[in-house]
Amino acid sequence: MPTSQEGGRTTAIDPAERVVELERALERQTRLLALMDQVAHAAIRAETLDDAIKVGAMLTGWPVGHAYFLDEDSGELAPSGLWHLTDPSRFAPFRAQTHVTRLRPGSGLPGRALERVAVQCDEHVSADATEPRAIVAESVGLRAGIAIP
Protein backbone atom coordinates (compact mmCIF):
# COMPACT_ATOMS: atom_id res chain seq x y z
CA MET A 1 0.00 0.00 0.00
CA PRO A 2 1.40 3.46 -0.87
CA THR A 3 2.47 5.74 1.96
CA SER A 4 2.97 9.46 2.52
CA GLN A 5 4.97 11.58 4.95
CA GLU A 6 2.95 13.88 7.24
CA GLY A 7 4.65 15.77 10.04
CA GLY A 8 7.48 13.26 10.22
CA ARG A 9 5.19 10.22 10.33
CA THR A 10 4.46 7.76 7.57
CA THR A 11 0.79 7.06 6.91
CA ALA A 12 -0.89 4.60 4.56
CA ILE A 13 -2.81 5.96 1.59
CA ASP A 14 -5.98 4.07 0.75
CA PRO A 15 -5.92 3.59 -3.05
CA ALA A 16 -9.73 3.73 -3.26
CA GLU A 17 -9.79 7.07 -1.44
CA ARG A 18 -7.07 8.40 -3.75
CA VAL A 19 -9.09 7.36 -6.82
CA VAL A 20 -12.17 9.19 -5.47
CA GLU A 21 -10.04 12.26 -4.72
CA LEU A 22 -8.57 12.24 -8.24
CA GLU A 23 -12.02 11.77 -9.81
CA ARG A 24 -13.34 14.80 -7.90
CA ALA A 25 -10.35 16.89 -8.98
CA LEU A 26 -10.88 15.85 -12.61
CA GLU A 27 -14.58 16.71 -12.36
CA ARG A 28 -13.75 20.19 -10.96
CA GLN A 29 -11.23 20.78 -13.76
CA THR A 30 -13.75 19.63 -16.38
CA ARG A 31 -16.41 22.00 -15.02
CA LEU A 32 -13.88 24.86 -14.93
CA LEU A 33 -12.86 24.25 -18.55
CA ALA A 34 -16.50 24.16 -19.64
CA LEU A 35 -17.15 27.43 -17.81
CA MET A 36 -14.09 29.07 -19.38
CA ASP A 37 -15.32 27.94 -22.81
CA GLN A 38 -18.75 29.49 -22.16
CA VAL A 39 -17.18 32.73 -20.93
CA ALA A 40 -14.89 32.91 -23.98
CA HIS A 41 -17.80 32.40 -26.39
CA ALA A 42 -19.92 34.99 -24.56
CA ALA A 43 -17.04 37.48 -24.67
CA ILE A 44 -16.66 37.00 -28.42
CA ARG A 45 -20.38 37.67 -28.97
CA ALA A 46 -20.61 40.63 -26.59
CA GLU A 47 -20.84 44.08 -28.10
CA THR A 48 -18.96 45.85 -25.28
CA LEU A 49 -16.40 44.93 -22.65
CA ASP A 50 -18.99 45.72 -19.97
CA ASP A 51 -21.40 43.21 -21.54
CA ALA A 52 -18.70 40.55 -21.82
CA ILE A 53 -17.74 40.86 -18.17
CA LYS A 54 -21.34 40.86 -16.93
CA VAL A 55 -22.25 37.82 -19.01
CA GLY A 56 -19.12 36.03 -17.82
CA ALA A 57 -20.02 36.75 -14.21
CA MET A 58 -23.60 35.57 -14.69
CA LEU A 59 -22.46 32.33 -16.34
CA THR A 60 -20.69 31.27 -13.16
CA GLY A 61 -24.03 31.32 -11.36
CA TRP A 62 -22.33 33.05 -8.48
CA PRO A 63 -23.87 36.02 -6.68
CA VAL A 64 -20.90 38.36 -7.19
CA GLY A 65 -18.79 39.17 -10.21
CA HIS A 66 -16.33 42.04 -10.58
CA ALA A 67 -13.59 43.11 -12.96
CA TYR A 68 -10.23 44.51 -11.96
CA PHE A 69 -8.05 46.13 -14.62
CA LEU A 70 -4.29 46.39 -14.77
CA ASP A 71 -2.93 49.88 -14.11
CA GLU A 72 0.13 49.72 -16.35
CA ASP A 73 1.81 52.65 -14.58
CA SER A 74 1.78 51.02 -11.13
CA GLY A 75 1.59 47.37 -12.16
CA GLU A 76 -1.35 46.95 -9.75
CA LEU A 77 -4.90 45.81 -10.35
CA ALA A 78 -7.36 48.67 -10.00
CA PRO A 79 -11.06 48.07 -9.27
CA SER A 80 -13.50 48.90 -12.03
CA GLY A 81 -17.13 49.87 -11.97
CA LEU A 82 -18.14 46.60 -13.67
CA TRP A 83 -20.19 44.44 -11.31
CA HIS A 84 -22.70 41.62 -11.32
CA LEU A 85 -24.53 41.46 -7.97
CA THR A 86 -27.57 39.29 -7.35
CA ASP A 87 -28.25 41.13 -4.07
CA PRO A 88 -26.67 44.61 -4.16
CA SER A 89 -27.61 45.51 -0.57
CA ARG A 90 -26.21 42.29 0.89
CA PHE A 91 -22.91 42.68 -0.95
CA ALA A 92 -22.60 46.48 -0.51
CA PRO A 93 -19.82 46.16 2.14
CA PHE A 94 -17.77 43.93 -0.18
CA ARG A 95 -18.33 46.29 -3.09
CA ALA A 96 -17.29 49.30 -0.97
CA GLN A 97 -14.11 47.55 0.23
CA THR A 98 -13.27 46.45 -3.30
CA HIS A 99 -13.77 49.99 -4.58
CA VAL A 100 -10.84 51.18 -2.41
CA THR A 101 -8.64 48.08 -2.75
CA ARG A 102 -5.87 47.91 -5.32
CA LEU A 103 -4.09 44.58 -5.61
CA ARG A 104 -0.43 43.89 -6.30
CA PRO A 105 0.55 40.80 -8.31
CA GLY A 106 0.22 37.84 -5.94
CA SER A 107 -2.15 39.66 -3.57
CA GLY A 108 -5.58 38.08 -3.26
CA LEU A 109 -7.22 35.86 -5.84
CA PRO A 110 -7.13 38.43 -8.68
CA GLY A 111 -3.50 39.25 -7.88
CA ARG A 112 -2.54 35.58 -8.07
CA ALA A 113 -4.27 35.25 -11.45
CA LEU A 114 -2.30 38.27 -12.67
CA GLU A 115 1.00 36.98 -11.31
CA ARG A 116 0.57 33.45 -12.65
CA VAL A 117 -1.27 34.45 -15.86
CA ALA A 118 -3.65 31.58 -15.21
CA VAL A 119 -7.15 30.99 -13.89
CA GLN A 120 -7.12 30.78 -10.10
CA CYS A 121 -9.78 29.13 -7.94
CA ASP A 122 -10.09 29.36 -4.20
CA GLU A 123 -12.71 27.50 -2.17
CA HIS A 124 -11.88 29.46 1.01
CA VAL A 125 -11.26 33.09 0.04
CA SER A 126 -11.94 34.36 3.55
CA ALA A 127 -9.01 32.26 4.81
CA ASP A 128 -6.56 33.67 2.22
CA ALA A 129 -3.85 35.54 4.13
CA THR A 130 -2.96 37.49 0.95
CA GLU A 131 -6.55 38.69 0.41
CA PRO A 132 -7.07 42.20 1.84
CA ARG A 133 -10.86 41.83 1.47
CA ALA A 134 -11.06 38.49 3.33
CA ILE A 135 -12.79 39.79 6.47
CA VAL A 136 -15.49 41.66 4.59
CA ALA A 137 -15.92 38.72 2.17
CA GLU A 138 -16.60 36.44 5.12
CA SER A 139 -18.97 38.98 6.70
CA VAL A 140 -21.24 38.93 3.62
CA GLY A 141 -21.01 35.16 3.14
CA LEU A 142 -18.59 34.94 0.22
CA ARG A 143 -16.67 31.68 0.47
CA ALA A 144 -15.25 30.77 -2.94
CA GLY A 145 -13.90 32.66 -5.88
CA ILE A 146 -12.46 32.35 -9.34
CA ALA A 147 -10.21 34.85 -11.08
CA ILE A 148 -9.70 34.78 -14.83
CA PRO A 149 -6.82 36.91 -16.16
Present the secondary structure layout.
Layout: E1 3-6, E2 9-12, H1 15-45, H2 49-60, E3 64-71, E4 76-85, H3 92-99, H4 108-116, E5 120-122, H5 134-139, E6 145-147
Helix pairs in contact: 1-2
Description:
- The protein is α+β, with helices and mostly antiparallel strands and 149 residues long.
- It has helices at 15-45, 49-60, 92-99, 108-116, 134-139, and strands at 3-6, 9-12, 64-71, 76-85, 120-122, 145-147.
- The strands form 3 sheets. A two-stranded antiparallel sheet has the order 1-2. It has a two-stranded antiparallel sheet with strand order 3-4. A two-stranded antiparallel sheet has the order 5-6.
- It starts with a strand and ends with a strand.
Summarize the structure.
The chain has helices spanning 15-45, 49-60, 92-99, 108-116, 134-139, and strands at residues 3-6, 9-12, 64-71, 76-85, 120-122, 145-147. By secondary structure, the chain is of the alpha+beta class. It is globular and about 50 Å long.
State the oligomer.
single chain
Helices, by number, come to: 5
Task: Count all strands and give the number.
Answer: 6
Report the helical percentage: 40-55%
Largest sheet: 2 strands, antiparallel
How far from one another are the termini? 41 Å
Radius of gyration: 18 Å
Proportion of residues in extended strands: 15-25%
Query: Strand sequence of the main sheet, in spatial order?
Result: 1-2
